[in-house]
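Minutes, project check-in
Item: structure for the 463-residue chain
Input as provided by the requester:
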Amino acid sequence: MFETATDYSNWAKIVEWYHQARQILPMHFKPSTHPKYIDFAPCARFFKTTPSHHGQLLATSLLIAMTSCLSTLPTSAAEGPQVIPPNSRITPSRNLVAATAEEHAKVWQQLQANGTDYLESNLYGIAEPFLVQAVAEARKFPEGDARLSKSLSELGRLYTIRGRYAEAEPVLEDELRVKEIRIGNDDGKIIPSIGSLVRFYLNHGTAQKAEPLTREILSFVEGTLQAASTGASGKVKLEKGAPLQGWAGAAAPVMHTPLIEWAITCDELANIYKTREEWETAERLYKAALDVKSTVLGKNHLSLANSYDSLGSLCLARNEDEDAISYFKDALAITEKILPPENPQVYARLDKLAKVLIKQNRHKDAEELYSLAQTLYKAEPSKNGNEARALYALGSVYCDEKDYVTAAPILEKALVAAELFHGPSSIMLVPYLQKYAYALYYVGDKPTVASLRARADSISGVM
């Protein structure tokens, strides 16, 4: 129909084509609906599913034409096409004026639905004017209405996806403001929304704005848990900059979801602060999440092992190895209690602890762990090659201790296990071949050493 998706030279023709499209594809329009309330998204999806490039081009042209023509659509096809001035701004209808509250709600719903659908379809240029207009319409609702925060959220998401962070920031800030009016700060339900804005600040260059909100989250969570530990009771209340008086010591079931959301928010933010090497804030957030989980889930839940693991990794990054060892031991102990021995998480946590012990030259302790790892897969073999990794790690520890006679047969078993799992020509075999050759070199089996090294070179493509 058009040479390109942005050919607007014949506006009358575009409108004429729109009416033709309505007649050709009536099943994709709502026949009983006023044209100004037509849902174009099903029609867009219909064209997008066509396999040809022409079909995709037609879909884009149709969407742009419809969006552009909304402001001048006739009530019926009989009224004929109307000419839209060239270079008109692509925008939803300016004539969607609601006479009643019910009609006004329908207008917002239509704008929001179209904008969201185009956003999900990655048609950002078409989604934007709908969402902008949806925000404008939603501002006519009572203060704190959930529809306004919903529209602001989608518009902010669109700006963020497109890298327009300066435009996204005030929109997302306004979203939080509206949610605070609606939800309030008394019971902590606003915590995930605050966390979402903090993530935006940290990830997109406005970290200085994240700090006060992070303090606000920590003040609420830590204050609530502190009050629980001292036996305080009463309604949880958020006051900026001050610990709270509240109660969460034995959370009722209805409180479980909000409290767990606090923990999720704290963990997510801690991960970001950790990558930024803001260790103290990350540690406070991890510990706040751990305390919440302990309160809600008890002391022997797997999510606590995740928290201990995160704290251990944080200590390791700070070169606080003894603290890291302590946390990794706690993580492993809880994981062993809850999961079967062949579960990959058991070996992963055992391996992490052993590596820190090796770093501390505690090879005997690491040796004990890797020896224990040989017993993990008696009931059921692993599905990810952990048997080979455990054997390789144990043989490597013996090599570090210069016990090559003990190391060599273990590394041979590791190589065989790796071949069974990865195949005889996999690049993953190279470290197994090299480590086995290393042990045999000191045992004195030089012919086998040469053969193993040649095979490793052949697999890795070394000339």
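Outcome recorded: The mean pLDDT is 79.
No further action items on this chain.
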